[in-house]
Amino acid sequence: MKLLVLDGNSIVNRAYYGIKLLTTKSGEYTNAIYGFLNILLKLQDMSTPDAVAIAFDVHAPTFRHKMYDEYKAGRHAMPDELRSQMPVLKNLLRLLGYKTVECEGWEADDILGTLAEECRKNGDECFIATGDRDSLQLAHGGVKVLLARTKMGQAVTDVYDEKAIFEEYGVTPAQLIQVKALQGDSSDNIPGVQGIGPKTALDLIARFNSVDEIYEKLDTLDIKAGVKQKLERDKDRAYLSLKLGEIVTDAPIDRNIEAYKIGAPDIKAASEFSRLELYSLMPKFNLNPNDAVIEEIKPRSITATVCKNADELIERLGSSAYFYPVITDGGITDLLFSFGDEVVTISQENSEYSGFIERFFESVCKKYTYHSKYLHRLAAEKGIECKNVCGDLMLSAYLLKPSDSKYDIEHLCLEYGVAIPEYKNALGGEDKNISYASVIKQLFEKTDILLEEANQIKLLNEIELPLARVLAKMEIYGFSADKKGIEEFGKKLAVRIDELTKLIYGEVGYEFNINSPKQLGVALFEDLNLPCKKKTKTGYSTNAEVLEELRQYHVVIDYILEYRTLTKLKSTYCDGLIKVIGADGRIHTSFNQVEARTGRISSLEPNLQNIPIRTELGREMRKFFNAKDGYLLVDADYSQIELRVLSDLANDETMINAFNDGDDIHTITASQVFGLPVEFVTKEMRSRAKAVNFGIVYGIGAFSLAKDIGVSMKEAKAYIDNYLKTYSGVDRYMHRMIDIAKERGYSETLFNRRRYLPELNSSNHMLRAFGERVARNMPIQGTAADIIKIAMVKVDRRLTEEKMKSRLILQVHDELIVEAPEEEAEKALKIVTEEMENACKMKVQLRADGKIGKTWFDAH
pLDDT, tens digit, for every residue of 251-261? Predict the structure, then answer.
């Protein structure tokens, strides 16, 4: 037999602190449960056990507490968020067929020890999974300890047996108890011998075997006088610590290993996973998602047919169609229409497919689908329009739960309690796409009600759905790129990188891997003897912040910082972009509409929103993005949109008047904060005021502001205090937003986009502070994101209505880029700025600054 025994409390603590706070829609915490179950699965993969026992501590005094009142004194109480998850986790483990073990008066460690001893007696294998090194004393006689720890920020599990322990510590597993008796253990408040640390304790036991042997021969042993004196003084403490630290191997528990075999999961387990919204774990535990459907649904029998007559299908669809598009890397290959329990498929292999698409897309039929952007892409490729898209399940799900990262049909069915009928073709094979198509209408029925309750129908219909069409057209159209120019720029960078490499080697005195933090740390702090600013468990820190502080000490730091900038620029933006330039000479990025919690759009494959602009050399990259022959680029950027949104949401008259009067907001802020007339505000004062202005939007504190602008904490706090006194409406807004978010459980934009904030109710100060920052800044950032989306829809619509050839090709945060024929450029610029400035009516006037140029660099 092979037994896996988990130290339940140790593993659940690692799970809780290792994963961000997660909650269900109703606010129930689940991060520890989610993490624990994932760790359990990994441990089972590692050990392939025949049986699993999970030991938990009981909240009651043990024999050790009775022996020593101060045992484990001073330990922090379990956070409420974790405590609430413990009974839920234990119940879930029971439903999954696992046996949990608790024993009042004994600790989980003693349960581990007892089951390990039983395996030794029977000749069985035993794996003990824990994050506590105390259990290493059990790793002998066929028992191995799977020790969970964090290495370089990653969770790793090391396997320990007698050999591994001796290699690391130079003692046997049993001798580790003796070591602990001497050195003590602050986490468990085991006293040990005062003044003897781990190094001395290990040395003593390695040389003299045990506490008994040390005290029996103390007078004759070769031990330093000071150490001998400490041992004599604290003999009683040493023996007390020996008893406290030794794990018991005869706790009164069931020792029959057969009793810990995993049983069949209870059917209720699926419902519990669904209730906890841990959908991704269900297949890992071989649970049937349909068992999780709470409402009574009769088993459905699905039939599937292939469209034989496109005219008949069009007629049958009538005024509304619910359908699922099959999407591959090449786009849509099939459309699957749902008619109750029948699914009709029309494929691109059908000779009538192309004609059907054109008629169906252009029809007045209301279209309810999934991932509508791909319908619009297909339409754009055919030079037509997909009209009357009235629903997109992916977008609906994103609005309802923006913190999710999964919006696939299976996940949505679990989320909203819809059973997925099984469909098998004539050959007995499964066809998931048929099953997915059959549930589309039911999912819309569920999500539409919730969107109505959340007052988000308008947000979906007027912003997200039309935006999907705009993004599709932008993806298809792409952005022209100068491949030859990028290649030449890359070669130029390579020459300078080679020069810098030689300069760095020359200063250090030898060749090494500059990209290796470990080797670079040794070079800087040992060989060049630079002052070490920050050291981690894995070595010296050589991050950008550390290097910036070291610039004053050695010229090599400037070389290294430049080397890092150029290698990143070359590998990511030169080499990377060349690979993705299409046969048409254009880069076709993909826009993700359902990623950011604030509502922002992201760009990937490649990420064109991340082209560097902070350095002069980085900005050079924009020279290689250009307009095609006969065209120009029109680039318009919102001016201080987030601050304008803040002034409106906060209803701060001082800020509103400054914007509407056309004043420079940073100069006005500096004037108010420093108590000086506007004409006396220096460039440095304006710069500091600017940092406060933008910092307030992101919930900056005095510590961060002081670091950013290079002043003392006292000065930074004074700036923030004076700012909030000047803009009292902003101060009231900040407090009001936190109170509202706490009351509702979410923060909200001007257009009813929500972000749920379980962190606001956390007992952990850091998490709660994070929740408060988000409650303050999400309405600002999210509203700004909504406004740029509205502007995109309006710009695209206007260009189309005015029958222009100009096309919107890129959105980067608060910036829109249009490619326009030379003769249309001025008109396109006027349209873009007008639509951006009139995207939303607020108390403060929105302003967009635009420019025209042949390249992105020229136009920005």
Answer: 898 989 999 99
